[in-house]
Amino acid sequence: MSSLSHLGLDANGSGDQDAILLQAIGTDLLRSFISVVVETWLVVLIIKASQILITKSSWSSRRLSTLAVVLIMYAMDVVLWIIDVRNIVVEIDFTLIRGLPLSSSGASGSLDERHANAENEILKLSIVEDVLYSFMTVLGDFIIVSRVFAFWTDGMRERLVLVLPCMIYVGSIGTLS
User: Fold this and answer.
1) pLDDT per position as a tens digit, 128-152
2) What sign for the dihedral angle of Cα 106, 110, 115, 117?
């Protein structure tokens, strides 16, 4: 019995396909791991931004609304982080460990079938990810527009600078569908 037979790898010709599939799985896992690491480091940025917004002596409604938006974006990022960790576990579990349920003959599905099953499971939460990314984009654009507005508060002529950021913000809201 081959050392890779428990992974569903054949020694009779489909090994090339299996090797290509394993390379794709490895690439997926590496990208997912990097994504999780980057999202983990965002915690440091959120803590620092919150400290800056909380420790100032003046408590304006603009400052509190910015803090609220930052914390909402952080909560959304935590959900995305959890989904990414889940996706890593699902891909490893469904493809390399558990696979498909055993058939009546006692053999598990092929590597292609097991990977397809893992991808189907991962795609169940892709709509949630897309919605969260869209809302995070709109909230981030809101922060940028509000900061541009705070910087350019002198006269009407200077406020013309706000036209482009406001148009971009309205455009990002329009693309939420």
Assistant:
1) 988 898 888 888 888 888 877 777 7
2) negative
Rounded Cα–Cα distance for residues 36 and 42 (Å): 10
Compute the C-alpha angle 159/163/165, nearest 5°: 110
| Residue 65 half-sphere exposure toward CB, CA atoms < 13 A | 10
Residues 6+ apart with CB under 8 A from 162: 145, 148, 149, 152
Q: What is the DSSP letter of 7?
A: G
| Number of other residues whose CB lies within 10 A of the CB of residue 73 | 21
| CA 51 to centroid of chain Cα atoms | 25
